[in-house]
Amino acid sequence: MTDSVTSASPLLSAPVAARRPHKIEHHGRCVEDPYFWLRDPGYPDVQDKDVLDYLNQENHWFEQAMAPHQGMMDVLFEEMKGRIKEDDQSVPQKDGDYLYWRAFEVGAQYRKWYRKPVAGGEDQLILDETALAEGHEYFRLGVASVSPCGRYIAFAADTDGSERFEARIRDLTTGEMLEDVIPGTLSALVWTSDSKAILYSLANENWRTDNARVHVLGSPISDDREIFHEDDEGFRVSIGLSSSEKWIILSTGDHVTSEAWLIPADDPFATPRLVSARRQGREYDVDEHEGALYIRTNDTDPNFRLVKAALETPDDWEEIIAADQHFYLTDFTLFKNFYVTEGRLDGLDQIELRDYTTHSAKRLSFPEASYSASLDDNPEYDVTKLRIGYESMVTPDTIYDYHLESGEWELLKVQEIPSGYDASLYGTQRLMVTARDGTQVPVSVVYPKDFPMDGTGRLHLYGYGAYGQAMEPGFSIDRLSLLDRGFAYAIAHIRGGDDLGQRWYLDGKLDKRTNTFTDFVDVAKGLIERGFASKGRISISGASAGGELMGAVLNSDPDLWGAAVAHVPFVDVLNTMLDATLPLTPGEWPEWGNPIEDAQAFDFIASYCPYQNVRAQAYPPLLVTAGLNDPRVTYWEPAKWTAKLRATKTDSNILLLKTNMGAGHGGKSGRFESLRETAEEFAFVLWQMPE
């Protein structure tokens, strides 16, 4: 065949990508990659005609295959849209002299940001995302921060999905944009105490934030000063503000090691003060209260402990909350007269109020056996009540104010579902499934009350399992479209996430990575044993590292699944980890291993890498998505995987690749456009797994 594909309409068969010889060698091993050419050498500026022709033809094949199901997609979209309160708004929250909130208008894809004086006065529109998004196929507001004096709002927006944000500043007294424009940011925007400057980080040419810079309002961007630089190419710099707002906190780290520095918020050009020098394998984060530093660290135990240090001797740590093998300390927040610790006890969210003197805890209680709960928006330091968010797989997002003195829970808002919702129609369980090595893996399941537990039903199973990110058992209005068509929906809390603590994460990374994949398969088999489905009646989905999970379990157990959806899947792990020029790679070695320097890491990654392990066997129906501007999982990974699958698999099941040509890792932007993509996914599943 020729070296490229050309457009044709209609397509009579799926596109077939050319195979072009390409190989690399490491540790005496040869890696053949005949689809390497799909990586445009000019990336991120993708202009190669052969590459674009192939992606466009795959998109054409996707559109052609899904066209007969447009009616179902439209029905699903309207269902999901009907569950959204179009003129919704957040609960106003006091911050200084103003109440702040965000609101959608009917039909709007994006929000408007408002405030009004606490003392009384008119509503003021301070930021209009809809206006900012006008003329752009993609829009995402990254951060927005009002200055301490209340006069300015700094914000950063991405208009192509590349996650390189442009920072702007608006004068809220005049409504005018300042001339200050900072392109290429990838960080928070943190104000100095006098509201005369902001701190930010630029993304370098490899999309790494290795710096912290100061911009003084009204001065040329070329005059901005770099006040901190990180030389380790695997580390990234982030910028924050202490709860007291007295200190700017510069943090740097990778997935296993971190370090923090402090700068007075009223003197951004002061020499940064080191809290504690980095030590390989130790992570910590820091905040300040009345001259004392509070530090959460995993130095003695993976589940973290809380220590305290004097500002003058920040490296001299005194333990105040010891590590606990059952309680995973995930966060802490300092307020003027008390502090809050958050964590998970045997996998369930906990919020504890603590005294600065005794450090004794008052644990808040929640009504359901499985749920998600956390502090919500609490911007002020001196408070008498806490804003808390709560939901479960059957309880919509609910916002409370918890009154500290009385213990009263004041209900502020329950997510409104205009088309109607009756929680009594659904059941939910938290199950434990025994994995093949004896480990008990939690599973959260929601299902219609009349769901048959005899193996005849249909089940959708979702998983992620990486980077220590837990999958919370929360509520989803989209999910109802599957439940109302008779599906059960399960979340597998597999190793690689930190659902059961930091050890749970450690047991799913590096040389234990395959636990993630086998846990997912074993959860599926356990749910089959419990009657939720039978072999071939389970659809599965995952995104990014969860897409890698999809690729691995499709290779290992293809007959279990009735359909699969892999969003922006990280499926070419070996080649990506072998390429130190890619933006994420050096910082990812602590997560996956470094196959460049370590032959054992090379062999282990090669043993499970989805792209490397595609084989001549039958695969279930599969929908794959990609983003041309995606800096996290580059578009060529799902493209190469799709090409190899199509050339290798032995079945005639449908295989579709959809590449968003104007978006990145998160797919299309806007609250309704993203629903259309969910409608596509569900329509694909329903097409492949009819009743």
How would you describe the overall organization of this protein?
The chain is an alpha+beta fold and about 700 residues long. Among the domains are: about 55-80 and about 420-690, 3-Layer(aba) Sandwich (Rossmann fold), CATH 3.40.50; about 325-415. The strands form nine sheets. It has an eight-stranded mixed sheet with strand order 31-32-34-33-35-36-37-38, sandwiched between helices. Strands 3-4-5-6 form a four-stranded antiparallel sheet. α2 (about 70-80) crosses α12 and α6 (about 515-530) packs across α7 (about 545-555). It starts with about 20 loop residues before the first strand and ends with a helix. About 45% of the residues are buried.
Q: Structural class of the helix and strand makeup?
A: alpha+beta
Radius of gyration: 25 Å
CATH class of the domain at 54-81 and 420-688: Alpha Beta
Task: Calculate the mean pLDDT score and round it.
Answer: 95
Unreliable stretches covering 5 or more consecutive residues: 1-8
Strand content: 25-35%
- Distance from N terminus to C terminus (CA atoms, Å) equals 41 Å
- From the spread of the alpha carbons, the general shape counts as globular
Number of DSSP-assigned strands: 38
Characterize the biggest β-sheet: 8 strands, mixed
- Any guess at the CATH architecture of the domain at 54-81 and 420-688? 3-Layer(aba) Sandwich
Lateral strand order in the biggest sheet = 31-32-34-33-35-36-37-38
Q: Number of DSSP helices?
A: 12
